[in-house]
């Protein structure tokens, strides 16, 4: 365990998530105790009571796990009475930066609180889109479909994954004529600052090379952005058994954490500071690349 100091806390964090998921623990039941447990753990550590500090920390990890599950728990599935073959008109707020791939532009629209849909606009020649920045109010007209799984045995539960992001439908819009800018704007979360920084980083990477393939590979390996990769290029990586390099995963985080550890050790930082700085950097990079 000495070589894996975070293993036990992570296991207790997972325990809190599991207990909250089966309904044995609720975040609101333990929320009031989390600051007290943190303070108790710090006091015990200062007093030299190592076991008291450890127990407080582990119970705190359980409570944090319950809180994480509560925050990410899907809400009741919203209902819209619409046939997939008929056009639906919705108004809402743009809550993501748009992404364009060939003649398709995608963004996420929040039609009501915690009720979102992914809009795909298929552009026509000469189309001009309204401003689609986060916080913009727009009206969309298109065909609406609920997000569903493919029902393949053992397949990824994409429906539940999307629901935890409060994403329940997809909408197909034919041309920019299906979008209409509305007056006013919506409040923007502070987290969009990360998205803005991410967009600027993507623009900078695109400026680094005139080779389209090089730009696409850099965006995939550094940012986890694979939209610019052509299908034939992806297939070449699959055949070579190196497709995992195009996905920001534990391999990337390990390389970053290892390099940062090597640099920080030169400055003589203690073990606690090393874990804090490297852990925060790894989590920050994971968040920056879209989690």
In this structure, how is the largest beta sheet organized? 5 strands, mixed, barrel
Strand order in the sheet with the most strands: 1-3-4-6-5
Strand content: 15-25%
Sheet/helix structural class: alpha+beta
Count every helix, treating DSSP H or I runs of 4 or more residues as helices: 10
Ends: how far apart? Answer: 27 Å
Shape: globular
Low-confidence stretches: none
Helix coverage percent of residues?
Answer: 40-55%
Compute the CA-based radius of gyration: 23 Å
* Number of strand elements: 7
Average predicted confidence as pLDDT: 82
Following the backbone from N to C, one meets helices and strands in this order, namely HHHHEEEEEHEEHHHHH
Task: Reconstruct the topology from this structure.
Layout: H1 7-21, H2 27-30, H3 33-46, H4 50-71, E1 87-94, E2 99-101, E3 104-112, E4 115-122, E5 136-146, H5 158-163, E6 167-174, E7 179-185, H6 192-208, H7 212-223, H8 231-240, H9 250-266, H10 271-288
Parallel strand pairs: 4-6
Antiparallel strand pairs: 1-3, 1-5, 2-3, 3-4, 5-6, 5-7
Helix pairs in contact: 1-4, 3-4, 6-7, 9-10
């Amino acid at each position: 365990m000495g070589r894996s100091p975070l293993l036990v806390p992570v296991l207790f964090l997972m325990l809190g998530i599991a207990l909250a998921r089966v309904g044995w623990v609720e975040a609101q039941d333990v929320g009031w105790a989390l600051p007290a447990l943190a303070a108790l753990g710090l006091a015990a550590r200062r007093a030299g009571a190592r076991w008291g500090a450890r127990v407080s920390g582990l119970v705190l990890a359980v409570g944090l796990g319950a809180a994480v599950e509560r925050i990410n728990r899907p809400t009741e599935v919203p209902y819209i009475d619409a046939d997939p073959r008929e056009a639906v008109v919705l108004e809402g707020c743009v809550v993501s930066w748009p992404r364009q791939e060939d003649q398709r532009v995608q963004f996420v629209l929040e039609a009501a609180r915690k009720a979102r849909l992914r809009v795909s606009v298929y552009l026509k020649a000469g189309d001009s889109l309204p401003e689609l920045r986060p916080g913009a109010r727009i009206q969309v007209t298109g065909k609406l479909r609920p997000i569903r799984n493919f029902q393949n045995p053992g397949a990824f539960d994409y429906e539940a994954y999307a629901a935890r992001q409060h994403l329940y439908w997809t909408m197909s819009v034919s041309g920019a004529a299906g979008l209409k800018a509305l007056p006013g704007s919506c409040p923007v979360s502070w987290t969009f600052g990360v998205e803005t920084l991410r967009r600027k980083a993507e623009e900078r990477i695109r400026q680094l090379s005139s080779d389209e393939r090089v730009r696409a590979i850099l965006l995939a390996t550094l940012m986890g952005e694979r939209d610019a990769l052509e299908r034939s290029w992806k297939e070449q990586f699959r055949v070579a058994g190196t497709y995992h390099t195009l996905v920001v995963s534990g391999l990337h985080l390990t390389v970053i954490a290892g390099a940062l550890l090597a640099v920080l050790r030169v400055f003589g930082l203690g073990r606690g500071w090393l874990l804090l700085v490297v852990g925060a950097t790894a989590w920050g990079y994971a968040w920056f690349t879209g989690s």
